[in-house]
Amino acid sequence: MNSDVFYPYYRLEMPAFAMTIEQEQALYKINSEIERFLFNADKPLILSIGRADKRKNFEAIITSYGQDKELQAMANLAIFAGVRKDISQMPDDEKEILTNLLLLMDKYDLYGKMALPKKNDPGVEVPEIYRIAARKKGVFVNATPGENFGLTIVEAAACGLPIVASPTGGPKEIVGKANNGLLVDVEDTAAIATALKKIIADRTLWDQYSANGIKAGAEDYAWNKHAEKYVEAIDGIFREKSEKFQAQTSFGRKLADAPLFLISDLDGTLVEGDDIRGLDELMDWLRQNPKVVFGISSGRNKALVQEALKNIRW
Fold it and tell me: Which CATH number describes the domain made up of 9-221?
């Protein structure tokens, strides 16, 4: 993820930090959008973000919150389930999911405790959503069972939000390595609620998870760090293979030490049907310059290349 966009929540308080007008507008808009749903907007904010997709398992998050009165007293809940205008006009699968979320909100009477905003801008507003939740000492929940990676987990962590997620797939690797949250069975609504209460109630634990997530985001999952590690890995492989290649064969040493590679197309360049004028002169030059590596690049298969070159005096 882009560390210039997904940065720690406390940077806003740094004397040298200045937000752009676009960021200020996004922060004001999103904060207002969340708070209009809530009676007490100062409480910690449990957050989940994703598409209106069955696999995101938003129903389990709402159910875990709705069934636990203690958790409701401790924190608010905000679910950003994609973008919607008129649910009745949406595709059937999204319509079903969003309708179920609203029905669960009504079932557990979560009015004033739960926000279900209608839209967000992934480019500008989503980073501010994470930071708003972090400043409120909240928690990010990714309840997708078997998540392959979990980009939202990395983004939330970089902004300083502790995590509750599944103990499988990408979340297991990310949270297990970063130690920035709790891994629970996301099909078990009671387990989700217990994990959330543990993090929210223990400020020392929250601070530890927040700091660990920020560190992991900066050191392991930022694009520049990823690129540095990738180049380092490739360079190591190249050095190992190059040394092995040079040590094994004299031909390998010639390739590795060659000052010049001359690679030619075949048809229409090296030969033109039966016309091989100039090839003798080229071969003489190559023999006089033994350090030059000569190669042929052709769309033909090996047999057809050999057939085309059978009359060349090598």
Answer: 3.40.50.2000
Strand-pairing partners, residue 163, are 140, 181
Phi, psi at residue 151, to the nearest 5°? -60, -35
- What pLDDT, in 10s, does the model give residues 55-103? 999 999 999 999 999 999 999 999 999 888 889 888 898 999 999 999 9
Closest CA to 65 of 2, 137, 114, 103: 114
C-alpha 25 chain-centroid distance? 26
Which residues, in sequence order, are bridge partners of residue 261?
293
Would you list the domain boundaries of the chain? 9-221, 258-308
Q: Tens digit of pLDDT for each residue in 41-54?
A: 999 999 999 999 99
pTM: 0.74
Residue at 162: amino acid letter:
P
Tell me the β-bridge partners of 293. 261
CA distance 135 to 113: 18
